[in-house]
Amino acid sequence: MTSTEQTTQTFVVPGIDRQDVMVLHDYNGFPYYGQEFISENLVISIVLNGLSIGYCDKREVRFKKNDVSVVLPNHICKEQETTKDYEVELVIVSPKFMEEITKNTAHRNYIKYHYDPIIRLTPEQCAVVLRIVHCVRDVCSMDTPNRHQMLLSMVDVLLTIIDFYHAKQEIPLEQMSHGYDVFNRFCNLLTDHYTESREVSFYADKLNLSPKHFSKLIYNATGHTASYWVSQHVAVKAQQLLRNRKDLTVLEICYSLGFADLAHFSRYFKRATGLSPRRFRVQEWQVGVEASPRW
User: Whose CA is closest to 42, among 6, 72, 12?
Assistant: First the structure.
C-alpha cells in the first residue's frame, strides 16, 4: 500500500457486542502498530509495564507504567513506538453497554476524556484500579442471570474511581468549558443526524451558532475542523457497514448513509480513508470474512 493509500483502521473486538464487556490481560499492543485506528468501543487501558508513545487525535501521548487512559469511541489513535517490556490491560466496553451506563450515570462528565484521556496514577492508585478491573474480569466469566446488572455496577465503580483520580489533574472548567461543551453537543448531534446532513452549517444551526463561530470553537477545542469530525464519523459508520453487513451491496450502504449516488459516496469515503468502499471491503474479506459479501 502506498503512502497515499493509508487508511484509518477500525479496532474490532470479536464478540464484544454479545459480551458487553471484555478484559484483555497482559495485552502487548494494539494490532495496527504504526497505523491510525479508531475504536467504536470505550477502551480503558492500564499500563502494567514499559512505555508506549503514540497519538490521540494527532496529539502525541506518552503512556507509561501505572498510567490509565479512557479513550471514548471514534477517536483516532496511533501506537507509534513501544518498549519491549510494554504490557497493558484493557477493558473494552461495547457501544450499547456504554449507552446504558451513560443513561444510568447522567452526572458523569465524560467530555473531559475527549481532551485529556490519560490519568497519571501512583503505584498505590493503580493497584486500586487493577483490583476493580480484576473484579470486572471475574464477573465477565460468570454464567449467571445477574451478570449484566453486576457488570453495570462494577464498570460504574471503575469509572467513578478513575473520575476521582482524574479530577486531581483536570484543567479548570472555566478555562475550557464552552468550546468543549459545544463539541460534546456536536458529537451527540452527529450520532443522530449523520445520515441526514454532512454540512457544517446544519450542525451550527442546530447549536444556534454561525458556521464561522462554530467552526472556530471546534477547531480551538480539538485541533481539527468540524468537517473533519463529520467525515471521520461517517467513514467509521461506513466501515462498520461494509465490514459487518455482508447482506448489503455497496450501493445499498451508500443509500443508507444518506448519499444520493455511489460516485459521491465513493469519493467521500476515499477522501476520508484512502480506500474506495469496494477496495476496503475486498481488503476486509482477504483478512478473513466468513461469508462473501454482496457487491
Answer: 72
Q: Which of 74, 113, 68, 72 is nearest to 88 (CA)?
A: 68
Give the pLDDT confidence of 50-79 residue by residue, as tens digits. 999 988 876 788 899 999 999 888 777 888
SS3 state at 62? strand
The torsion angle over the Cα atoms of residues 56, 60, 62 and 67, rounded to 10 degrees, is: -30
Mention the CATH class of domain 3-169: mainly beta
- Residue 91, classed as helix, strand or coil, is strand
Question: CA angle, 144 as apex, 142 and 147 as ends, to 5°?
Answer: 75
Convert the pLDDT of each residue in 184-233 to its tens digit: 788 878 888 999 999 999 999 999 999 999 999 888 877 788 998 898 88
Note whether 240 and 10 are within 8 A (CB): yes
Q: Tell me the domain boundaries of the chain.
A: 3-169, 173-286
Cα end-to-end distance, the chain, whole Å: 23
CATH fold of 173-286: Arc Repressor Mutant, subunit A (1.10.10)
Q: What is the pTM of this model?
A: 0.61
Pairing of strands 21-27, 51-56: unpaired
Residue 107's DSSP bridge partners are none
122 contacts 66 by C-beta, under 8 angstroms: yes
Max Cα-Cα span within the chain: 56
Cell of 157: 465503580
